[in-house]
Design a protein that fits this description.
The structure holds two protein chains of two kinds. Chain A is of the alpha+beta class. Chain A contains 17 helices and 23 strands. Chain B is an alpha/beta fold. Chain B contains five helices and five strands, in the order E-H-E-H-E-H-E-H-E-H.
Chain lengths: 592, 145
């Protein structure tokens, strides 16, 4: 309820309203906050307050809220209500795109108005045209631009000839940091231009308030997006240890949320930048650009939005952001720097991991025979797979030696544990066993000697070992299998199901008096003896089921007749190797 | 030419709702049409009005997004329709397969809604501003670094 309306000076009015609650209920706080409403007095009914603002605005909005001010015409009352709705709606819109749809129609409803045109100004001219009534055709756009005031100020009424309208009322508004705008209202001869100018002035006030509020909301939303991006990017980058994947995920996360394109350059050993990852919202366009070596070189050089990937005190490359958006939509440099720092750490971690893993693989290779002997009547193949997440040298080993008497000893073993100590023991065990077996020492004797050595050294480590001693026998080979706690081998027979041999025995290094298990097998022509370490049988799929239970039999059936090298390679790939897998296959050839 | 109409091909209720809400806020003037499976796309694109952008989920039961891309790109009259794959997949090989099949964009589908909205908004903004495929000659890119 309006208590009083009291002019304070030309153009300014104080309106006394019954209670603060009414003000804040009818008009969202920020609408009136800028209008300097103040508490005046406290009464039994509540606190009175006064609102001080431009007379033109307060008269209308309070008229609508209070149910009308005496003396207003029907047009004035309609406008008061429209303005009231406008203020209420202006505080709930989410984007500037919605603003034109909100503020232009009420003006178009005024008597005598032929068109309402909205222009959004950018640094290089008008960036958006909106209209109600007569559309902004190319010709009218030129007219509207020519009539738009160059600076903010009171509404101007411009007389025109030769158009569907006789006058245009125009106001330009500007808000710091925001695109300026102009609203032009084209009216016919019968229109009350003064009244339209008043209405336009009021609409400009709503518009400016909405633009201010949108700027605040957008800044908050942008911050939310940046926070969310950093959080998701960190999760994504931490989730992988593969350098290539990391260098792909970094730009993929950034595009298009914060940039239209993102490139990762990593310096090679000579310091030359090499493009390792590139994502663009329009990849065809980026590919076209990257086909030019000069363009790539230019992008790799220092420049704006090309940030150094710096971590652990050194520069490892450069992260380049490509923007194809208005300058005010480009994220702050501090944010780009933050994202780049996280990317640098993730890329460096995954690169170091990869280097370390390659070192492990190389060292593992040194612990294994560089080549296996060629043996008449036998095809021999081996494979070694380093476990997926393994960063230390494992203890699996294998070897094949040919004795002077023509017998062939194929051995496979697994030192418990990983790391340098296990690696040293692996090398020692393989060389000891291979040397003794080659000299004609029996498998039991060779394993006993190794056991003595381990017990003498006081090593707590133990080794599972299996030795197959193959002697030519009729059209195949007689196999003497000696096991010291090692998984039983498999015999793949032509035209029959695979058969598991016997395991047993106690690993070498556990007991002073070793216990071995012996069994005899026979390889006919075409049969294959497959020896392996427990990394194969105990590897698990996504559900946790071990390969021995889930896929081994099927894989063996599938691979029974393939060449032995294919057999060991495919088999090791079939298993999801968390631990190392050593495989050694010996096949009796046809026609020996 | 703005993006007046976007065809969303998506079979998950949650994503349909989120896409509708996100684009509804950032591009209130853009109309959305939803299809729940790949085989519906080509028949729809034989009718007018044509969408400027098709937003594709890659992993749908039956005919997936990749098949849809191949089918749409086999129709010369639909060359101007932008095919945007919107997926949470991290597979680089999948992205390359989509581009090879003729996708225009392969964008990341974030979990966070603010980011989700931003990704969609920026993607539509980009294709809104590119009225036709701008493949600049080597060294003549308008992208600003």
């Amino acid at each position: 309820m309006i208590v009083s309306i009291k002019p304070v000076r030309p153009g300014k009015t104080d309106v006394r309203i019954a209670t603060i609650q009414q003000v804040t209920t009818d008009y969202p706080r920020h609408v009136l906050a800028g209008r300097k409403w103040t508490r005046c007095s406290r009464s039994a009914a509540g606190s009175d307050c006064a609102v001080s603002c431009r007379t033109s605005t307060i008269r209308w909005i309070l008229a609508a809220a209070a149910g009308g001010v005496t003396g207003l015409s029907q047009v004035g009352s309609d406008w008061a209500r429209a303005l009231h709705r406008l203020w209420s709606a202006a505080v709930v819109i989410d984007s500037r795109e919605q603003l034109a749809a909100l503020v232009l129609p009420p003006l178009q409803e005024l008597p005598g108005v032929r068109a309402v045109w909205g222009l959004r100004h950018g640094p290089d001219g008008v960036t958006a045209y909106r209209w109600r009534g007569l559309p902004l055709t190319a010709e009218r756009r030129a007219l509207a631009e020519s009539l738009a005031p160059q600076a903010p100020g009171p509404a101007r009424v411009i007389e025109l000839r030769g158009h569907e309208f006789t006058r245009v009322v125009a106001v330009r508004f500007e808000e710091p940091g925001q695109a300026a705008g102009t609203i032009l209202v084209a009216v016919g001869a019968a229109a009350d231009a003064g009244f339209v100018a008043d209405c336009l002035t009021q609409v400009i006030e709503v518009t400016q308030e909405a633009v201010r509020r949108l700027a605040v909301v957008r800044a908050e939303q942008d911050q939310q997006v940046r926070d969310a991006l950093l959080a998701e990017a960190s999760l994504q980058m931490d989730a992988v240890l593969d350098a290539e994947q990391t260098m792909y995920r970094v730009p993929r996360m950034a595009v298009p949320a914060i940039a239209e394109g993102c490139l990762v350059f990593i310096d090679d050993d000579g310091g030359k930048p090499v493009l390792r990852g590139a994502v663009h919202v329009d990849m065809r366009r980026l590919d076209a650009m990257l086909r030019d070596p000069a363009a790539v070189q230019l992008l790799a050089e220092p420049g704006e939005h090309r940030l150094e990937l710096r971590t652990r005190g050194r520069v490892i490359g450069r992260l380049v952001f490509l923007f194809d958006r208005p300058p005010d939509r480009i994220p702050p440099t501090a944010f780009l720097r933050d994202l780049t720092a996280r990317a640098a750490l993730a890329i460096d971690n995954s690169t170091l991991y990869e280097q370390r893993r390659q070192e492990v693989i190389r060292m593992q290779q040194h612990l294994l025979p560089t080549r296996l002997p060629r043996v008449a009547g036998l095809s021999v193949a081996a494979s070694y797979t380093v476990g997926d997440r393994v960063l230390e040298v494992g203890g699996d080993f294998y070897d094949v030696v040919v004795r002077d008497d023509g017998a062939v000893a194929a051995l496979i073993g697994d030192v418990c544990g990983r790391g340098v100590d296990a690696a040293a023991l692996t090398g020692m065990a393989r060389h000891t066993l291979a040397t003794l077996l080659q000299e004609g020492v029996s498998p039991r004797r060779a394993l006993t000697r190794l056991n003595e050595r381990l017990r003498l050294d006081g090593s707590w480590r133990f080794i599972t070992v299996g030795v197959a001693l193959l002697r030519p026998d009729r059209d195949g080979f007689a196999v003497q299998w000696t096991s010291a706690g090692h998984p039983a081998p498999v015999v793949l027979r032509t035209g029959a199901d695979a058969r598991r041999g016997a395991g047993g025995g106690v690993p070498v290094g556990v007991l002073d008096s070793p216990v071995f298990a012996s069994s005899r097998l026979r390889l006919r022509a075409g049969d294959t003896l497959l020896m392996f370490t427990d990394g194969l049988t105990e590897s698990r799929d996504g559900t946790g089921t071990m390969f021995e239970q889930a896929g081994l039999t099927t894989a063996l059936d599938r691979l029974r007749d393939v060449p032995v090298q294919t057999l060991v390679d495919d088999l090791s790939e079939s298993a999801q190797a968390a631990d190392d897998i050593a495989l050694l296959a010996v096949r009796a050839c046809d026609g020996r | 030419m703005g993006v007046d109409l976007v065809l969303v091909v998506e079979d998950t209720d949650e994503d349909i709702e989120a896409i509708g809400r996100a684009i509804g806020r950032s591009h209130p003037d853009t109309r959305l049409e939803f299809l729940r499976s790949g085989p519906q796309v080509l028949p729809r694109l034989r009718r007018r009005p044509l969408p400027q952008v098709v937003l594709l989920d890659l992993n749908m039961p039956g005919e997936g997004g990749l098949d849809v891309i191949k089918q749409v790109r086999a129709v010369p009259g639909l060359a101007g329709v932008r095919l945007v794959v919107f997926t949470s997949s991290e597979s680089q090989a999948e992205a390359e397969a989509c581009y090879a099949a003729g996708a225009d964009s392969y964008v990341y589908k974030p979990i966070n809604f603010a980011l989700f909205r931003s990704v969609l908004s920026r993607t539509l903004d980009y294709w809104e501003n590119v009225t036709q495929t701008v493949v600049p000659p080597p060294g003549d890119s308008v992208a600003q670094a």
